[in-house]
Amino acid sequence: MGNAALALGALSAGVGLAAGYPGTPSSEIIEAISKRPHSGVHVEWSVNEKAALEVAAAAAYSGVRALVTMKQMGLNVASDPLMCVSYVGVKGGLVIVSADDPGPISSQTEQDSRRFADYCRIPVLDPASPEEAFQMVQDAFELSEKYGTPVILRPTTRVCHAYACVDAPETTAPRQGEGFVKDSKKWVIFPRLSYMNHGRIEARNVEIAKALSDYGYNRVEGSAGEKAVVASGVSYAYVKECLKNRPDVRLIRVATAFPFPESFMLKALAGVKEVMCFEELSPYVEEQLLKLAGRYAFNISVSGKLDGSLPHNGEYSTEICAAALSRFLGLGIGLKQIDTSDMPALPLRPPVLCAGCPHRASFYAVKRAMQGKKAVFCGDIGCYTLGNALLLDLVDTCLCMGAGITMAQGFYHTDKDAVCFAFVGDSTFFASGMTGVVNALYNEGDIVLVVLDNSTTAMTGHQPHPGTGRNMTGNFVDKVDIEGVLRGMGVKTVLTVDPLEHEKAVEAVKACAAQKGVKAIIFKSPCIALSKPKGKCSVDADKCIGCKKCVRELGCPALTVSGGKVVIDRNLCTGCALCAKICPMNAIGGEAHE
Amino acid sequence: MNKDILICGVGGQGTVLASKIIASAAMDEGNSVHSAETIGMAQRGGSVTSHVRIGENVFSPLIPFGSADLLLAFEPAEAVRSLKYLKPEGVAIVNTVPTLPVTESLNPGAYDPQRMLEYLKTKCACIFVNSDEACAPFGSNKFFNIVLLGIAAGSGKLGLSRETLIRQIEQRVPARFVDVNKQAFEAGCELGKPKL
To answer: Hey, which residues 117-156 in chain B have their CB within 8 Å of chain A?
Structure first.
């Protein structure tokens, strides 16, 4: 996997500390490091990306090579330390992997981390394959140390989750740092230092751009002509797939978007009159070409996203690239395909909560308790965002990590009649939920906080967090207790309930909704993907009247309808028996019932 | 060998393990392999695909439309959804048992799996298999991924030896499930043997 290749590359580079926060498509990097022999390397899941970057910055100040991993949304969270450490600089190499997600497949936005690199004035490398990711992370450490700057490595989903063969050394060892050396003129950020360093950074970036012009992954393929194709990131792989039998087409690959390798590009564009840019997310390289053309006043037509030749949004593919290349080059590119224009309508498959997921029970308890009442349900980031899916339909907002809590408070101030709920997962609570609770307490918010505690970070692949009592070193540590944290902050009503005890759960919600101030329910039940199923439920077809209340209210994937009666898919059912509790005909039973 | 294999299904059906076994077996036989998976939110009951690309001169991590030699479909509608990846002369091995989306339950009959299977037959060479029947001896449809792998191997369309595949199964499934998975694989091989 590309993420494993990144991990192996970092270990090969002698990384001494690796920290991150889980987020698709980046999560497997930290996991891969922890699974390989990594004696002497500190590996951690930090509580969030800001914490991860700050932990890593200290290592880099001490001369140790440090890796930080996150998805692109995490870079927003880490942007405060990132911007500052960009000004301060580093001693040991500091590489930030920010995995972008064109599509987006599993993210809120289609932001482009290359722009972040430009914004922070630090170099960014952009691999097109797992093989390149392995090499580039090592190059990134070299670059970082040579110029004393953090470096961003920007893979995308199709690099992170692609697999390829990589030759990695069997054993690696972390490079020793000399330890932190006090130098307050260097390590303490102050306006005067920032002013000086700002000038140095801009001068240095000119030098780096020159050096990167000779970087092997910035290269020109194919013979010279008046038309050229420019590609960056995984778009290069798609374009190369289209042009693999066309050595007559000039293909310019840009692997370092910032600092832009100007002298390389000027050489590559010699004699070219028309160029088309292929890059996902934002037209970064395209804009650099336009800048270049403006500054050097040469007559070149640049097409890509900005002139509508290629889409701004969504991920690219061999097909999208083939169509654009065919128009640009006047060639027919693409393979003979089966005609599927007469395809029958296909069922839609939006993702849903798993059968037996305790979050379903939690959402349903809230839904029943609030029936007929005015309420706003603020969701958050995690599996439980899927509480918005039909037929549960119980998430009204979702913005970013931790926002559910602060938004619920905001809704309260604008509509005092509504009961304002905030759903937050256990890992998200630790990542960025706690400050919101303090804010609501301090500013007299009136909210019901519902912590959906399944004792894991489920959506990203079941990573441990401070509430689980395990960490990435494999050690058992004291659990940070969510109930204790809330009480310590001053939340007076904190009820811990098993959501699968349905009536108790409903009562708990009603009790909290009736009180003033900040109240909390912790719905505690382990993730169904990690726990042993309790059994199977089944429907007594003689009793089932086909009212479909269970289907309509719960939206459980194990419940289907056949011949007017409800049928439970035995391959999916885990025996949570939530449906049995709501069936008006008592037609559903657990294992004992069979 | 140059071969593109597309695996499609619904999140949770075990497509990822099937693709990992094929990819590693192909590597064991000395091939260069590239593959790609759907990971993340779509895994929760959404449509998922795995792309396995065996051989040299491969660049895109995803199989281009019209390039797959073999389509392994865990679900009839997903087979139709992924048909565009198949070469016109390619082969599809398709589970006939549908997975109904949750929303379909309120509008029964909107999704007609039989229609999907009829449609597939008009478009490409198909091998159909009923996962409920094929997995009955093993007590759970969780073994269908390995049965399907067996069918692909038995049909000769996979281009990988049974021994290499079995070695990968032994390495990748938990020890206590190795025997039943091997039986599932052998049963699949029998099902996949070209009928005379």
So the answer is: 119, 123-124, 140-142
pTM of this prediction? Answer: 0.94
Token code pair at residue B59 = 């660049």
Q: Each residue's pLDDT tens digit in chain B (196 positions)?
A: 899 999 999 988 889 999 999 999 999 999 999 999 877 666 677 889 999 999 999 999 999 999 999 999 999 999 999 999 999 999 999 999 998 887 776 676 788 999 999 999 999 999 999 999 999 999 888 999 999 999 999 999 999 999 999 999 999 999 999 999 999 999 999 999 886 5
Judged by CB atoms closer than 8 Å, whether chains meet at A340 and B83 is answered as yes
In this structure, the number of other CB atoms found within 10 A of the CB of residue A47 comes to: 18
Inform me whether the C-beta atom of residue A386 falls under 8 Å from chain B C-beta atoms: yes
Q: To which residue do tokens 């070149």 refer? A: A300
Task: Tell me the chain B residues in contact with residue A334 when contact means C-beta distances shorter than 8 Å.
Answer: 64-66
Same domain, A28 and A144: yes
| Alpha carbon distances (Å) from A357 to A171, A557, B56, B61 | 41, 10, 43, 33
Range of the domain at A369: 358-524
Kindly state whether A38 is in contact with chain B, defined as any CB-CB distance less than 8 angstroms: no
- CATH code of A163's domain: 3.40.50.970
ipTM greater than cut 0.90: yes
- Closest listed residue to residue B90, CA positions, set B155, B25, B46, B144: B155
Q: How many angstroms separate the CA of residue A571 from the nearest CA in chain B?
A: 7
Query: Domain total for chain A?
Result: 4
Residue A98: beta bridge partners?
A: A70
Question: Containing domain of residue B31, as a range?
Answer: 3-104+111-130+156-175
